[in-house]
Amino acid sequence: MDLDTMTNVILNNQYDLNEGKNNNYNNSKNKKIKKKKSKIRKILKVLFILILLFVIFVILFFKTSLFQKYKELWVQTAMSTMNHQYLATWFLSDEEIEEIMQKLAVHNNENSDPSKIKITNKSNEIKVEEIKGSGYVGHVMIIGNPCRVKLVDARKTNTGTQLTEIVKENNAIAGINAGGFADDGGHGKGNKLVDAVIIDKELLNGNKTDTYSLIGLTKSGKLMLGNYTYDEAIKSGINSAVEFGPFLIVNGKNQITNENSGGIQPRMAIGQKQDGTLIFVSIDGRKPGYSLGTTLLELQKIFERYGAYNAANLDGGSSATMVYNGEVINRPSTPMGERYLPNAFIVGN
Q: If 160 and its partner were Cys, which of 28, 47, 296, 340 is the partner (CB 3.0–4.6 Å)?
């Protein structure tokens, strides 16, 4: 073989080898592209199925009566918050929501009778117990001497006050949040009252001729629940009160009958035994895996177990805070912790 022939053979072999490599590379690349496209198609198919299932679920859940009980619980839970009502309004008309809210509304038509409360327990003992139930964790504070408890105004010039600071400023040993306040967009500063408030017989917010659902205390420490005008409240013996509710137990009679009333929420509530012992109940909520909260019916059952003769729901949600010995002992539902409050029930030293 001469040199020219050998060179041609080598060059041809090199060409053939390169061509084989290119073909292998292109084949491998095509396979990867096909595999990627197949994977994307599978993902899109799964997403489509999930979206379809979600749409079917929404239709069955909100537009039929198959899950009526849970739909009512959903609506009550969403509509009893300030910032998450869209969870109901996105799926249901105003008329449908109103129908459910009216169906599960609690109507308190009886005032508590202070003559039924005989303050015989004047022990200065305070007991705090952790309680657990189906889906919730909470705390119960039992105050032997009701005369130690009073309602205080915590508003500053442009803000409310955090509960730990309220307790500290009043040289108290414990406290809970009390009434509500304006909370535009979830950024309320805790100083703008929206409900009636009476402290030391002075009407801080409201109209003297209107009737309010009041949760109040007399000078002697009796918890009073009722629908009063300002003058009626003062004549009945109320010294301080906040407008809130609903009432859970009045004169030993349960007020909540529907298991879905109020939805599932973090809670704060106050009650009293016939011997005068006051009971604070805080329920943590909106923390999946730890505590979701309770309905009003479950809250009522807690007070029943502790022997309450009268009990009422206070401002809950992200405001629900309980302080003892200078520390917050519950877990408020907001990541920021304590909120700024307009008023609080405190337990003096």
A: 340
Backbone angles phi, psi at 121, to 5 degrees: -95, 105
Torsion sign over Cα 16, 19, 25, 28: negative
**Do residues 212 and 243 make contact, with C-beta atoms less than 8 angstroms apart?**
yes
Report residue 29 as tokens: 């690349």
Torsion sign (Cα): 169, 200, 321, 336: negative
Structure tokens at 188: 């309320």
CA 19 – CA 25 distance, rounded (Å): 10
Helix (H, G, I), strand (E, B) or coil at 86: helix
| pTM score of the predicted model | 0.86
pLDDT beyond 80 at 179: yes
Tell me: the pLDDT tens digits for 57-83?
889 898 898 899 999 999 999 998 877
Per DSSP (E only), the strands in the chain are 126-133, 136-143, 149-153, 161-162, 172-177, 197-199, 202-205, 212-218, 223-228, 238-243, 247-250, 253-254, 267-272, 278-283, 310-313, 322-324, 327-328, 340-341, 343-348
Residue 262 confidence (pLDDT) above 60: yes
For the chain, which residues make up each domain, given as ranges? 65-103, 114-348
